[in-house]
Write a structure and sequence with these properties.
CATH superfamily of the largest domain: Collagenase (Catalytic Domain)
Signal peptide: 1-27
Number of helices: 7
Radius of gyration: 23 Å
Largest sheet: 6 strands, mixed
Number of strands: 6
Family: Belongs to the peptidase M7 family.
Shape: globular
Bound molecules: zinc ion
Cofactor: Zn(2+)
Protein name: Extracellular small neutral protease
Subcellular location: Secreted
Amino acid sequence: MNSRKILRASLALCTTGLLFGSGVQVASATGQADERGAQAAARVVTYDSSGAAEFKDAVTQGAAAWNESVKNVQLKPVQPGQRANIIVVADNGWPRAQPTSLGNGRVWMGRQAVNEGHNTVRIASHELGHILGLPDVKPGPCSSLMSGASAGTSCTNQYPNAQEKASVERKFAGSKVYARDVAPKFALAVY
Ligand SMILES: [Zn+2]
């Protein structure tokens, strides 16, 4: 290789180096690791609200509130024919949730609390919070999602606070979720 060819090769390497540095997607070891990290970051948890009767929209809004608030898990409507992680139904009792494992379980959109004046979207978001691994924090202020009914019927906040968001992000962070999926200890939780 003569000196001119060496110079050309060096320039080519420099250009590649610039591309690496500018964040352009290249097949470097680091780039692949980052991509895997990003893919693992959002775990999709599906829900089936076909049994939620008049509360279907509230469930959609409750799920949207979570999707806006956290990035490690996203709630999506289940595709037809697929088995959902979360089954949401309506009944005449008090709203409640039965998580079976992290990100899996059943939600009852109970009409009793709705008839007493509690906000349907907050109820949905709160119960979804249980399925995402959060316990009740009662009594608590309206700024807390998991304070549930204790914040009173005037409370319409459907968003988790910073602490609640951070807790869900931790639970669904990386590979830890799989370890915790195995044998969670969850009880029936109410609104
Ligand atoms: Zn609750």
